[in-house]
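Standup notes
- DV: blocked on the single-chain target, sequence here:
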Amino acid sequence: MHFYLRIGAAILVASSLSACATVTRGTRQKFEITSVPPAADVSLSTGQTCTTPCHLKLKRKTEFTAHVSKEGYQPVDVPVIPKMHSGGGAALAGNIVAGGIIGGIVDGTNGSLLDLTPNPLAVTLTPVADASAVPASGTASASPEK
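- DV (later): unblocked, structure below
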C-alpha cells in the first residue's frame, strides 16, 4: 500500500512541475525582420546576424537591439523588448490554479508568457544624400581677382 502512495505522490509532484505556457508556447519564438529595400544587413546585440528578409528563432525573454544597415542608406537601430502576450495574465493565473505555484514560477521566469515586440520588425531605410551634390566644408576656394 505504501508503494502505491509513493508512486502516486511522485506522479503528483512531477505533474505539478510542468508549466502550461512553457509546454504550449515554448521559451523561443519565430522572429521576422524585413526591410525596404531588401538585402540589408542585420546584426542583433545578442550576436546573431542575417540579411533581410530573415526569420530567426529567438528567446522570448531577451531584450536586444537590431542594427539594420545597407550601403548607401542611413543605418537604423531598433530596440526589441519582451512584453506579456495578450493572454499572459490569464494564462499565469490559470497555471497557478491548475498547476500550482511551481508552474506559475516556471512560466513567469523562463519567458514563455512573453512575446518579442515589435514582431515582425519592418524597417524602411532612408537613402544617404549624394556626396557629390553637397560640397564638403572647407574645400571651397576663392579665385584671385584680376
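- Follow-up: The chain has a mean pLDDT of 76.
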